[in-house]
Amino acid sequence: MSGPAPAPAREASEDEDAQAWARDLPWRERLRRSEVAGELWVGLGLLLAYAAVGFAALVRFQDGLGSLDVHPEWIDPRISLGPSWAHPFGVITVAGVDELSALFQATPWDLAIVGSVLAAGLSLGFLLGGVAGLEDEGIVDLLVTSWSDLIAGVPPFVLVTILFLGVEPFLAPAHRLPAFVIGYVAVLWPYYARPVRARARVVREAAFVEAARAAGASRGLLLRRHVLGNSLAPALAQIPVDVGNLFFLLSAFPFLACFGASASTERGVSVYSTGPYGLVTPLPSLPFPEWGYLLARGACSGWAVQWSANSWWMYAFPAVVIVLFGFAVALTCDGVQKMLARHSGI
């Protein structure tokens, strides 16, 4: 009867040795051995590259970061200045700017816009969703559920568009971009809070949370140590979608103004006459170094909208920059999400 007893002890000892060996590995080696290391490293590497370019642009342009170097002689729909040694990415003629320089100058602005919207929206939705999921009833749960139900099923960029169109006539140019970010955050946070709330309601029933509650852990400690960390996955899945929505909206405003627009120069100064839809933009001035704006201007001039042109570089390079950034965000979020799933006990 006592014969089989040593086997479990031997298996337990082997498991402990394997765990101790894994703990002794450097964190880089442990991450490399993880099955999610590849996509996470690629995503982080691309994001760090964007951050390095943004920092270089801050150093290069400094006080002139918001002013593009416009050449009025290029603003002519009849000319086509494609990629060359002088202009590796070509020229966006409707804006009169060198495309490579403009995209480089726009990088810190777009990183700031995306970072501000996502950081504020994710933080607010994550915290309120966690609190609402931990409690059965309360003012926070009522706020999250009521506001989420009110806007459920409507894409955030539609609500932001309606909100911004309502307040834009009353805003000074310098206040448009901050108001746009605040409005986007106000609309965005429930899209994070609702799935986090649902996940937190599952986490709070887990055995380790019940054990912590029985040991006398406060609500704040339960929220900080157990609930929030195990409820992050739904929020990570939403981030790449919101990045795409944000750039879609930043491109849509100036693109609508292309229809029926005309560009010319008067006394060496560029004159741009908008189409019947007008030009509503969250940007403080035009032309402005921002990826979405450059994509819309490039599509307006390079794609066969008005002048039957086929200047592919005007819209291709801004599109590649935006898509590659979204790809980096998606890879990073997916890698972090899989790592959390591997270490979650739920």
What would your notes on this structure say?
- By secondary structure, the chain is mainly alpha-helical.
- It has one domain: MetI-like (MetI-like fold), CATH 1.10.3720.10.
- 66% of the residues lie in helices and 4% in strands.
- It is built from twelve helices and four strands.
- It has helices spanning 6-24, 27-33, 37-61, 99-134, 139-151, 156-167, 173-203, 207-214, 219-227, 233-256, 291-302, 313-343, and strands at residues 91-92, 97-98, 262-266, 269-273.
- The strands form two sheets. Strands 1-2 form a two-stranded antiparallel sheet. It has a two-stranded antiparallel sheet with strand order 3-4.
The count of helical stretches stands at: 12
Largest sheet: 2 strands, antiparallel
CATH superfamily: MetI-like
What is the SS-derived class?
mainly alpha
Shape: elongated
Please state the average pLDDT score.
Answer: 77
